[in-house]
Automatic annotation (TrEMBL):
Transmembrane segments: none
Species, as recorded: Draconibacterium orientale
Domain DUF4440: 30-134
Pfam families: DUF4440
UniProt name for this protein: DUF4440 domain-containing protein
InterPro entries registered for this protein in UniProt: DUF4440 (IPR027843), NTF2-like_dom_sf (IPR032710)
Keywords per UniProt: Signal
Signal peptide: 1-20
Keyword Coiled coil applies: no
Length: 150
């Protein structure tokens, strides 16, 4: 009986620990995404260059391009991501891959014009070594009533 109790206790503790780890990873991704928005606002291309995978892709309303072009756009201010107000997020982690969906209002300056647009942004991260790399970022234009299901 003691062996059974000990075995069940270990199983329960390991299940709780695995949920705690998933929750910690999800929070890490949420924090990383928020930090990315700040770096984009600050035009901090050095930190962004470290975060973006060399093969990363960025899908905007006007086109799709890779890391170097995205960094150039940010550095020159062709698109200045002034402020991303995050309204809601949903995160899913599968192995070494994390996907975060964020419903945001993005205040930006695009080629000299101030705009404010509602988006759902999909970001795909992959654990590489001890850190995370952004593989993809996609802007989807949505209504302000758009809801993320968790």
């Amino acid at each position: 009986m003691k062996t059974l109790f000990l075995g069940l206790s270990l199983i329960i503790m390991s299940v709780q620990l695995s949920f705690a780890q998933t929750s910690e990873v999800e929070q890490e991704i949420i924090n990383l995404s928020k930090q990315k928005w700040q770096w984009m606002s600050d035009k901090d291309v050095d930190n962004l260059a470290s975060l973006f995978d060399d093969k990363s892709k960025f899908v905007h309303m006007s086109g799709t391009w890779g890391k170097e072009r995205e960094l150039e756009i940010i550095k020159t201010g062709s698109i200045w991501y002034r402020k991303a107000t995050v309204h809601d997020v949903a995160v899913e982690v599968s192995g070494e891959t994390a996907i975060i969906w964020s419903r945001i209002t993005l205040a930006s300056n695009v080629r000299g014009n101030d705009v404010e647009v509602e988006f759902t942004v999909t970001e795909v991260f992959q654990k590489q070594g001890t850190g995370w790399k952004l593989l993809a970022l996609t802007f989807s234009s949505v209504r302000d009533t758009h809801v993320l299901e968790h």
